[in-house]
Amino acid sequence: MEKYVGAIDQGTTSTRFLVFDRRGDVIAQAQREHRQICPRPGWVEHDPREIWTATEGVIRDALAGAGLTRKNLAAIGITNQRETTLLWRRSNGEPLHNAVVWMDTRTDALVAEFSQAIGKEALREKTGLPLATYFSGLKLRWLLDNVEGARAAAEAGDLAFGTVDCWLIWNFTGGRHLTDVTNASRTQLMNLATLDWDDEVLSLLQIPRSLLPEIRSSSEVYAEVEGLLEGVAIAGVLGDQHAALLGQACLRPGEAKNTYGTGCFLLMNTGETPSPSRSGLLTTLGFKLGDGPAVYALEGSVAIAGALVQWLRDNLGLIGSAAEVETLAAQAEDNGDVYFVPAFSGLYAPHWQERARGAILGLTRFADKRHIARAALEATAFQAREIIDAMSRDSGIPIAELKVDGGMTTNELLMQFQADILDAPVVRPKVIETTSLGAAYAAGLAVGYWRSTQDIRDNWQEGRRWTPSLAAAERERLYARWNKAVTRSLDWLD
Question: How many C-beta neighbours within 10 Å does residue 113 have?
Answer without folding.
Answer: 13
